[in-house]
Amino acid sequence: MLKTISGFDRIGEENAFAVLARATELAGQGRDIINLGIGQPDFRTPDHIVEAAVKALRDGHHGYTPATGIAPLREAVSADLLKRHDVETDPGNVLIVPGGKVTMFMAILMFGEPGTEILYPDPGFPIYRSMIEFTGARPVPVPIREENDFAFSASETLSLINDKTRLLILNSPANPTGGVTPRSEIEALVHGLDSHPDVAVMSDEIYSQMTYDGMEHVSLLQFESLRDRLILLDGWSKTYAMTGWRMGFALWPECLIDKARKLAVNAWSCVNAPAQFAGLAALTGPQTEVGHMVSEFDSRRKTIVEGLNALPGISCRTPLGAFYAFPNIKDTGWQAKALASALLEETGVATIGGPDFGILGEGYIRLSYANSTKNIKKALERINSFLMN
């Protein structure tokens, strides 16, 4: 029998893809499936971005690029960060990566090993915990509580840091809850981190341009005291409806960028060349489609929250960011994963059970409103009929 290293036995997965596979299988059998499970915009990538990739191919950009990404794209990322966060950054510290998960993998791999601890949000993106466990580090959940509007608590987060803590992972706006942590809480956290100068921070800001009701996205990049240990994760997937292009970027501190570059060389050599030109067009071209998408998500958000709160046994806080609702289903009498499975198999509505996002996710399910208003309303009707029977 072949034996792999023990770390591979600890790798988890993102169950949203398992649900997607099952939903696709059922659709292939002729079932009418409404997918509110996968976190993927239902919009097309804007035409000018697609055309930029086509042009790059026609212009002969068929070869390798630098492992860190083409220089114009890294410069455009720095310009975009300046425009959005009013912070000057060095394009030399930007790394273009094939999707946001890669930055998580690299950061956790750099800091995780047996005998260390890494803090991560719970409920949170499942890859955080999966990769922490792979490295042998101890995963320490930072509770993300409904009563706090799914924002993290600075004091609770700081209380979990000890001399074994190597990395703190933060996510706002957040998956799966849609929570957005306010500036006051972030400032309190940054101030408290002054007492823990050896703890690195990875800030997952992939939903940074999706906030609602006047809620401000506060980037950790804005705090100078953190910049020498901050890994910023962002990208194109959500903002520009480019999930399948596999395009992300990270801003690394000076002390880590060369380590990240070496990992890139060893793992994937470089990101797909035409896709990088598409990413350049996305950042430097018109942003009207971004505004349109966010406005449409806002409208769908109101529809889904109102509909969820009208369902028997369900209550739902209004999410302030991303494109997810995370309703409380405890009064239905169902366990979360069992309910999510039953909704898919019996009603054709794909959702994700809260425990797939962490131990504190029991009692909740995640619904993505990156689907049409028509489908959202139809899904809510099906869920209502199911719960009433």
Work out the radius of gyration. 21 Å
- Mean pLDDT figure: 96
Q: Quick one: overall form?
A: globular
Largest sheet: 7 strands, mixed
- Beta content: 5-15%
How would you describe the overall organization of this protein?
46% of the residues are buried. By secondary structure, the chain is α/β, with parallel strands linked by helices. The protein has 12 helices and 12 strands. The N and C termini lie far apart (50 Å). Helix content is 39%, strand content 13%. It folds into 2 domains: 140 residues, Aspartate Aminotransferase, domain 1, CATH 3.90.1150; 222 residues, Type I PLP-dependent aspartate aminotransferase-like (Major domain) (Aspartate Aminotransferase, domain 2, 3-Layer(aba) Sandwich), CATH 3.40.640. A 7-stranded mixed sheet has the order 2-8-7-6-5-3-4, sandwiched between helices. A 3-stranded antiparallel sheet has the order 9-12-11. The longest helix has 22 residues. The model has no long low-confidence stretch (mean pLDDT 96). Its cofactor is pyridoxal 5'-phosphate. Keywords: Aminotransferase, Pyridoxal phosphate, Transferase. Belongs to the class-I pyridoxal-phosphate-dependent aminotransferase family.
